[in-house]
TrEMBL record, chain A:
<feature type="transmembrane region" description="Helical">
    <location>
        <begin position="170"/>
        <end position="188"/>
    </location>
</feature>
<feature type="transmembrane region" description="Helical">
    <location>
        <begin position="454"/>
        <end position="482"/>
    </location>
</feature>
<feature type="transmembrane region" description="Helical">
    <location>
        <begin position="418"/>
        <end position="442"/>
    </location>
</feature>
<feature type="transmembrane region" description="Helical">
    <location>
        <begin position="147"/>
        <end position="164"/>
    </location>
</feature>
<keyword id="KW-0560">Oxidoreductase</keyword>
<feature type="transmembrane region" description="Helical">
    <location>
        <begin position="375"/>
        <end position="397"/>
    </location>
</feature>
<feature type="transmembrane region" description="Helical">
    <location>
        <begin position="281"/>
        <end position="302"/>
    </location>
</feature>
<keyword id="KW-0812">Transmembrane</keyword>
<keyword id="KW-1278">Translocase</keyword>
TrEMBL record, chain B:
<dbReference type="GO" id="GO:0003954">
    <property type="term" value="F:NADH dehydrogenase activity"/>
</dbReference>
<feature type="transmembrane region" description="Helical">
    <location>
        <begin position="246"/>
        <end position="266"/>
    </location>
</feature>
<feature type="domain" description="NADH:quinone oxidoreductase/Mrp antiporter transmembrane">
    <location>
        <begin position="167"/>
        <end position="456"/>
    </location>
</feature>
<dbReference type="InterPro" id="IPR001750">
    <property type="entry name" value="ND/Mrp_TM"/>
</dbReference>
<dbReference type="Pfam" id="PF00361">
    <property type="entry name" value="Proton_antipo_M"/>
</dbReference>
<feature type="transmembrane region" description="Helical">
    <location>
        <begin position="443"/>
        <end position="465"/>
    </location>
</feature>
<feature type="transmembrane region" description="Helical">
    <location>
        <begin position="310"/>
        <end position="327"/>
    </location>
</feature>
<feature type="transmembrane region" description="Helical">
    <location>
        <begin position="118"/>
        <end position="138"/>
    </location>
</feature>
<feature type="transmembrane region" description="Helical">
    <location>
        <begin position="278"/>
        <end position="298"/>
    </location>
</feature>
Length: 533, 655
C-alpha cells in the first residue's frame, strides 16, 4: 500500500469556486437565523454581492493566468491542473466562469424582481402547501428566499463542470448543478401544478440520464484504468485493445451530457420544463446550464477523446443535424412563446454542436481562421444573452392570471407597448441570426469552423434549419406588431422594477453591439486559448 | 473539404482577362459615400423607431421627411457620379472603409463600401426612381391612416437596397439582401387586413428564404475557399480555385438570384406580391429589388467567367423564365399581374445578358436600367388607373380610358412603346442588343429570345387595348378621373426617361463605362448582320401587335373572363401551374413531415399543454393522468436515443 500524501490545493486559483460556495452556505445560515421580514433584502443582496465578488475573484485568476504566457503565440494552452488533478483552471475554464457568472447575475436580478407580482417574488410563498388549499392562500404574502442560495449552489456546480479534471469531479459537478435546478423549477407561484410537474419530470429524467453518465464513467474506467481525463487521453492514443468498451463508455458519457444541453433525441424534457418553470429560472437555466454543459462536452471530447476524433464525430454529426431540424421544425408549429423559445433552444444546441465539430487545435489552422473553441465560446455568449433577455421579456407580458405566453394573446403588443415589443423583436432577430445582431456572427462563426473541418453537410442542414426557424421568429414579430388584439383577451405589459429592466437592457445592448462590433469578444474567446491537457 | 468531396464533374476552362477589383480609398467628395445609405436609413429610424414615442406628432410630416431623404440621397449620388466621370478610366473604383465589422487574427471583415461604375449606375436608378416613387406615394397613400409607417418601410427598403449595391464584400451584400427581403415582406403585407396580402407576404418570404440558402452557403463556401468575402480578394484569387468549387459557387449564387429575381423555379411569389400597394410593386417588384439577382451575377463576374457550366445554367434559367413570364402575361386580366408576368420575363432577358458573359454584362445592366424606367412608369400608370377606378384591377372592367385620363394614357403609352421595343424607344435599344449577343452565342437561345419579344408585343398590346381603348366596360358608379399632379409629374418624368433611356448606348458609352467592372469583350460577329437581326425583331414585334389587334381590339371584350378556353390559356391563367408544382414537390412532403413530427410531439409532449386552458380542475385531471404516462414515454425516448448513440458509435467504428 502506498503512503498517504497530503493533497495540495491551489487556493488562489480555486478562489472563485470557494467564494461562491461560501456565500451559498452563508445563505443557508441566513435562512435559519435572520427574521423572515429581513430575509429577502439580506438574501438578495448577499447573492448579488456574492456573484460580484466571485466575478472579481475570476478576473483575478484571469490575470494570474496571464503569467503563464500568451496562448495565442505559445502552445495554445495555459493554466494549472489543480487539486491533485481534479480541477483544471485554464483559459477556457476562466472564460466560461466569467460567462456563467454574468448569467448568474442576470438570474439573481430576475429572481429578485418583486414588482410584477405586486410586492412578492415569482416563487411560491410556501412550496409545501398543496395547490388550491387554505394553506396556500395563507402563504400568499410570503416569499421563498431559499432560492438565492439554491441559485448559488447551482452556479458553483456549473463552474466546476467545465473545469473538471476527472470523470468523478465531472459527475459530482453535474449533480451539484442539477439538484438545485430541479427544485427551483418546481417553485412557481402561479400555475403550480404545471411547475411541479415540470420539476418532477426534469428530476426523473435527469436522474435517469445521470445514471447513463455514471455507467459511462465506470466503463471508461474499465477501459483506461483511470478517471483522469489526461490518462484517458493516453489510453485512447496508445491502447487499441478494447475498442468496444471505450466506445460504449464514450456513448454513455455523451448521453448524460447531451441530455443536459437538450440535444435531440434527448430533448423531450426541454419544452415542458422551460414552460413549467418560473420564467426567471428558465431564463437563468437556458443560458447558464447550456454554457456549463457545453464547456464540459468540449473538455470531455477534446481532452479525453480528442485523439480519437473520427470515432465520435459521425455520431455528433447526426445529433447536431437532428437537433437543428427537430428544434427548428417543431418551433415553427408552436403557438406559445415559451415553448417556441424552448424549441429554439434545441435548435441552438444543434448549432453549438456544429461548432464543436470544427477543428480544435490551432496547429491545423491557417492564420486567421477561428478555432472551434473560439466559435463555440462566442456562440454561447451570443445565445446566452439573447435567451436570457427574451425570457425576461416573457415575464413582463401578463394578464390577470399571471404570465401569459400564448401567442394569440400577444397580438397587438407592438401597439400599446412598442418598447417591450421592439426589444423582444430584437432578441428574436438575434436568435434568428439576422445580420447586424449578435446571432449572425455567432452562426457565421460555428458554420465557418465546421465548414473548414469538412462538415459541410451539417452546415447545409444548419443553414436550412436557420431559414426554417427564422419563419417563426418573424411570425411572432408580425403577431406583435401587425395583428389586432382580440378584444378582452389581450395580454398587457406590467412595468418591472429596475432589476428586470437592467437585465433586459444589458441583453438587448449586447445583442446589438456584438452584432456590429463583435471583435473584442471574439478576440477574448481566442485569447482563452485551448484546454490544458 | 467541400470541393474535394464532389466528383470532378467538369474539366478544363478557357481563361480570360477578368478585371480585378482594386479600388483606391475614398477622398474628396467620395467621402460622402456613406451619406447615400445613411440618409434613408435615418428616415427609417425616425419614422419607425422614434415616431411611436412622439404621440402622433411625426404623422403630420413623416411622409414629407420620408420623401425628402431619398431625394437627398439622389443628389449625393448625382454629385458622386459627376465626380466619377471626371476621373481617369482606370481610376474609377473607390472604396470607403467605415469600420471593422470583425477582426480575428488575420481574418478581417470590414464594413466597406465600393463605388465603381456598376454601383454608380445602380445608385442613380435606386435613388432616382426611388425618389419619384416616394413623391408619387404622397398622393397615392394620402387617405391611408398608416402612411407614416409606409414611408418608413419604403425608406428602410431604399437603405437596404443601397447597402446591397454599395457593399465591398459579399457579407455586406448579404446584409442588404436580407434587408430588402424584410422590407419587401413588410410592404407586400402592408394591407394585412386583406387575407390575400398576408398570405402573399408569407409566400414571398418563404420562397426568398430558399434563395437565401444559396447565398448563405455561397458566402460560407467563399470563406472556406478564399478566407475572405471581399470582392477584391476573391477577384484576385478566383483563378487559383478549382473549377468545381467555382461552379458550385456559381450555382449557389444563381439559386440566390433566382429567389430574389423571381426566376424559374423560384418565380411563384412575384405574381402574388402584387397584393402590396402599387408604388411598392413599381419600386421593389419592378424597378429595383427584383433586379438584385442580375446585379449579383454581374458583380460576381469573376466567378462566373471561370465557371462556364454555371453560366450555361444561367442562360437556361433565363430563357425558360423569359418565355414563362411572357406566357403568363398573356392570360392575366388583373392589370398588375399582367405587368408582373412581364417583369419576370424582362428580368429573364437581363439574366440572359448576364449569362452570356463579358459580351452581355453591360447590356444586361443597360436593359435593367431602361426596364427600371419603363416598368416603374407603367406600374405607376396602373396605379393611377386604379386610383381612378376605385381600386379595381380587372382590365375587363376598364376600356376607353384614354379620354378620361389623358396624362396617364400618354405616359403609359411611352412605357408600352419602350417595352415592346418600338424603334427609337429605350427598350428597343437594350433588348435588341441582348438578342444580338445571344444570337452570336447560340442561335437557339437567340431565336427563343426573339420569340419572347413577339409574345411581349402581344400581351402588352392586349393590356393597352383593354385598358385604354375598346368600349367602356366600367362598373356602375365608377367615375374615372385624372390623378393629382403629385402623381402625374413622376409619371411624366419616367415617361421621358422611357423614351430617352437609349441615349446611354450612344457611342457605346455604357459598354465603355462599365468596362472596368465587366471587362472588354472581343467583338464577335453575329451569324447574320446586326441590321438584319434588328429588322427580324421588329417584324416579329409587329406580328405580335397585329395578333393582339385582331384578337382583342377587333372583338368585344367580355366583362367576365370566358371559361370555355383552351388548355394553354387555362395553364397560363394558373401561372403555368407554378403553385401546383411547388405544392406537389415541396409543400405536400414538407407538410407531411411537419405533421408527423408534430404528432410525435403531441403524443409525447403537447397533451399536457393543450389542456392548459381547460381550467384548473381539468388541468389537474389531465396532469395526473399525464404524470404516469408521459415521463415514461420520455424516459423511453431517452433510452432509445442512448441505444442509438451507442449503436451508431459501434457501427461506424467497428464495421
Amino acid at each position: 500500500m502506498t503512503d498517504f500524501t497530503k493533497p495540495t490545493i491551489e487556493y488562489s486559483y480555486l478562489a472563485p469556486l470557494l467564494v461562491v460556495f461560501a456565500i451559498a452556505c452563508l445563505g443557508v445560515l441566513v435562512e435559519a437565523f435572520v427574521p423572515r421580514k429581513h430575509r429577502f433584502l439580506v438574501q438578495a443582496s448577499l447573492a448579488i454581492g456574492g456573484v460580484l465578488l466571485t466575478m472579481a475573484a475570476t478576473i483575478a485568476v484571469a490575470y494570474k493566468l496571464k503569467e503563464h504566457g500568451d496562448a495565442s503565440t505559445g502552445a495554445g494552452a495555459r493554466g494549472i491542473v489543480g487539486s491533485m488533478g481534479t480541477v483544471v483552471v485554464d483559459g477556457p475554464s476562466v472564460f466560461l466562469w466569467g460567462l456563467i457568472l454574468v448569467f448568474a447575475l442576470g438570474g439573481c436580478l430576475l429572481f429578485a424582481e418583486r414588482r410584477l407580482e405586486g410586492g412578492v417574488s415569482a416563487f411560491a410563498g410556501q412550496a409545501a402547501a398543496l395547490p388550491g388549499t387554505e394553506a396556500e392562500r395563507r402563504a400568499a404574502g410570503l416569499d421563498h428566499t431559499e432560492v438565492y442560495p439554491l441559485l448559488l449552489f447551482a452556479v458553483m456546480g456549473m463552474m466546476l463542470f467545465p473545469a473538471s479534471g476527472d470523470l468523478i469531479t465531472m459527475f459530482v459537478a453535474l449533480e451539484v448543478l442539477s439538484l438545485p435546478l430541479y427544485l427551483l423549477c418546481g417553485l412557481a407561484r402561479r400555475r403550480r401544478l404545471l411547475s411541479q410537474e415540470a420539476a418532477l419530470k426534469y428530476f426523473v429524467l435527469g436522474a435517469f440520464s445521470s445514471g447513463f453518465f455514471l455507467y459511462g464513467v465506470a466503463l471508461t474506467y474499465g477501459f483506461a484504468g483511470s478517471m483522469n481525463l489526461g490518462d484517458i487521453n493516453e489510453a485512447v492514443r496508445n491502447d487499441a485493445s478494447n475498442q468496444t468498451l471505450m466506445l460504449i463508455g464514450l456513448g454513455m458519457l455523451a448521453v448524460g451530457l447531451l441530455f443536459k444541453v437538450g440535444a435531440a433525441p434527448f430533448q423531450a424534457w426541454t419544452p415542458d420544463v422551460y414552460q413549467g418553470a418560473p420564467t426567471a429560472v428558465t431564463a437563468f437555466m437556458s443560458a447558464a446550464t447550456k454554457t456549463a454543459a457545453f464547456g464540459a462536452i468540449m473538455r470531455l471530447f477534446y481532452v479525453a477523446f480528442g485523439a480519437d476524433r473520427w470515432s465520435w464525430q459521425p455520431m455528433m454529426w447526426v445529433v447536431a443535424i437532428l437537433s437543428m431540424l427537430v428544434g427548428a421544425v417543431l418551433a415553427v408549429t408552436q403557438r406559445d412563446v415559451k415553448r417556441m423559445l424552448a424549441y429554439s433552444a434545441i435548435a441552438h444546441t444543434g448549432f453549438l454542436l456544429t461548432g464543436v465539430l470544427g477543428v480544435q487545435s490551432a496547429g491545423e489552422l491557417s492564420k486567421g481562421q477561428l478555432t472551434s473553441m473560439q466559435a463555440v465560446l462566442f456562440y454561447l455568449v451570443t445565445y446566452g444573452v439573447s435567451a436570457l433577455g427574451a425570457f425576461a421579456v416573457v415575464s413582463l407580458v401578463r394578464d390577470s392570471a399571471g404570465e401569459q405566453s400564448a401567442l394569440n394573446r400577444w397580438a397587438g403588443l407592438g401597439k400599446h407597448s412598442p418598447l417591450v415589443a421592439g426589444v423582444f423583436a430584437l432578441f428574436l432577430l438575434g436568435l434568428a441570426g439576422i445580420p447586424l445582431t449578435s446571432g449572425f456572427i455567432g452562426k457565421w462563426a460555428v458554420f465557418e469552423v465546421a465548414m473548414s473541418s469538412g462538415a459541410w453537410p451539417v452546415v447545409i442542414v444548419g443553414v436550412i434549419s436557420s431559414m426554417i426557424a427564422a419563419y417563426i421568429y418573424v411570425y411572432v414579430i408580425v403577431v406583435m406588431f401587425f395583428r389586432d388584439p382580440e378584444p378582452g383577451v389581450a395580454a398587457y405589459v406590467v412595468h418591472p422594477s429596475v432589476m428586470t429592466s437592467a437585465t433586459i437592457a444589458v441583453g438587448a445592448a449586447a445583442t446589438l453591439v456584438l452584432g456590429i462590433i463583435p471583435g473584442p469578444v471574439l478576440n477574448l474567446a481566442g485569447v482563452a486559448g485551448q484546454f490544458l491537457r | 473539404m467541400f470541393p474535394q468531396l464532389l466528383p470532378q464533374l467538369f474539366a478544363g476552362h478557357e481563361g480570360g482577362a477578368i478585371p480585378v477589383v482594386d479600388p483606391s480609398s475614398a477622398d474628396g467628395a467620395f467621402g460622402l459615400l456613406w451619406l447615400v445609405v445613411a440618409l434613408p436609413a435615418l428616415g427609417a429610424l425616425v419614422l419607425l423607431a422614434v415616431a411611436p414615442f412622439t404621440r402622433g406628432a411625426v404623422d403630420k410630416w413623416g411622409h414629407l421627411l420620408g420623401a425628402l431623404l431619398p431625394v437627398g440621397s439622389f443628389l449625393v449620388s448625382l454629385l458622386l457620379f459627376l465626380q466619377l466621370l471626371g476621373r481617369d478610366e482606370g481610376d474609377r473604383q473607390v472604396s470607403q472603409h467605415l469600420w471593422n465589422w470583425f477582426e480575428v487574427g488575420g481574418l478581417k471583415v470590414g464594413f466597406d463600401l465600393l463605388y465603381d461604375p456598376l454601383s454608380a449606375l445602380f445608385l442613380l436608378l435606386i435613388t432616382g426612381v426611388g425618389s419619384l416613387i416616394h413623391i408619387y406615394s404622397i398622393g397615392y397613400m394620402e387617405h391611408d391612416a398608416r402612411r407614416r409607417r409606409f414611408f418608413g418601410y419604403l425608406n428602410l427598403f431604399v437603405a437596404a437596397m443601397l447597402m446591397l449595391v454599395l457593399s465591398g464584400n459579399f457579407l455586406g451584400l448579404f446584409l442588404g439582401w436580407e434587408g430588402v427581403g424584410l422590407a419587401s415582406y413588410l410592404l407586400i403585407g402592408f394591407w394585412q387586413h386583406k387575407h390575400s396580402a398576408a398570405a402573399a407576404a408569407k409566400k414571398a418570404f418563404i420562397v426568398n428564404r430558399v434563395g437565401d440558402i444559396g447565398l448563405s452557403l455561397g458566402v460560407a463556401l467563399m470563406f472556406a475557399t478564399f478566407g475572405s468575402t471581399d470582392f477584391s480578394v476573391i477577384s484576385e484569387n478566383a483563378a487559383g480555385a478549382s473549377e468545381t468549387t467555382l461552379t458550385v459557387l456559381g450555382l449557389l449564387l444563381l439559386l440566390a438570384a433566382c429567389g430574389k429575381s423571381a426566376q424559374v423555379p423560384l418565380q411563384s411569389w412575384l405574381l402574388d406580391a402584387m397584393e402590396g400597394p402599387t408604388p411598392v410593386s413599381a419600386l421593389i417588384h419592378a424597378a429595383t429589388m427584383v433586379t438584385a439577382g442580375v446585379y449579383l451575377i454581374v458583380r460576381s463576374n469573376f466567378i462566373f467567367e471561370l465557371a462556364p457550366h454555371a453560366q450555361t445554367v444561367v442562360v437556361i434559367v433565363a430563357v425558360v423564365t423569359l418565355l414563362w413570364g411572357a406566357i403568363i402575361g398573356c392570360a392575366k386580366d388583373d392589370i398588375k399581374k399582367a405587368l408582373a408576368g412581364s417583369t419576370m420575363s424582362q428580368i429573364g432577358y437581363m439574366m440572359l445578358g448576364a449569362g452570356l458573359g463579358v459580351a452581355g454584362y453591360a447590356f444586361a445592366i443597360f436593359h435593367l436600367l431602361t426596364h427600371g424606367f419603363f416598368k416603374a412608369n407603367m406600374f405607376l400608370g396602373a396605379g393611377s388607373v386604379m386610383h381612378g377606378m376605385d381600386d379595381d384591377v380587372d382590365m375587363r372592367h376598364y376600356g376607353a380610358l384614354d379620354k378620361a385620363m389623358p396624362v396617364t394614357f400618354l405616359t403609359f403609352a411611352m412605357g408600352y412603346l419602350a417595352i415592346i421595343g418600338f424603334p427609337g424607344f429605350s427598350g428597343f435599344w437594350s433588348k435588341d442588343k441582348i438578342i444580338e449577343t445571344a444570337l452570336a452565342d447560340n442561335w437557339v437561345v437567340g431565336v427563343l429570345a426573339i420569340l419572347g419579344a413577339g409574345i411581349t408585343a402581344f400581351y402588352m398590346t392586349r393590356l393597352m387595348l383593354m385598358t385604354f381603348f375598346t368600349e367602356k366596360r366600367w362598373e356602375k358608379g365608377v367615375h374615372p378621373h385624372e390623378s393629382p399632379q403629385v402623381m402625374t409629374v413622376p409619371l411624366i418624368v419616367l415617361a421621358a426617361l422611357s423614351v430617352l433611356g437609349g441615349v446611354m448606348l450612344l457611342g457605346d458609352w455604357i459598354v465603355d463605362f462599365l468596362a472596368p467592372v465587366t471587362g472588354t469583350a472581343a467583338h464577335e460577329e453575329p451569324p447574320i448582320p446586326a441590321i438584319a437581326v434588328t429588322l427580324i425583331v421588329v417584324a416579329v414585334v409587329a406580328a405580335g401587335v397585329a395578333t393582339a389587334w385582331f384578337l382583342v381590339g377587333k372583338r368585344d371584350v367580355p366583362r367576365t373572363a370566358p371559361t370555355d378556353v383552351s388548355f394553354a390559356t387555362r395553364a397560363a391563367r394558373q401561372d403555368l401551374y407554378g403553385d401546383a408544382i411547388n405544392d406537389t414537390l415541396v409543400v405536400l412532403p414538407g407538410g407531411a413531415l411537419v405533421r408527423s413530427l408534430t404528432s410525435i410531439d403531441k403524443v409525447g409532449v403537447d397533451g399536457v399543454v393543450e389542456g392548459g386552458s381547460a381550467g384548473i380542475g381539468g388541468l389537474g385531471l389531465i396532469l395526473r393522468r399525464a404524470q404516469n404516462g408521459y415521463v415514461r414515454s420520455y424516459a423511453l425516448s431517452l433510452l432509445g436515443g442512448a441505444l442509438l448513440v451507442v449503436l451508431a458509435l459501434l457501427a461506424v467504428n467497428l464495421s
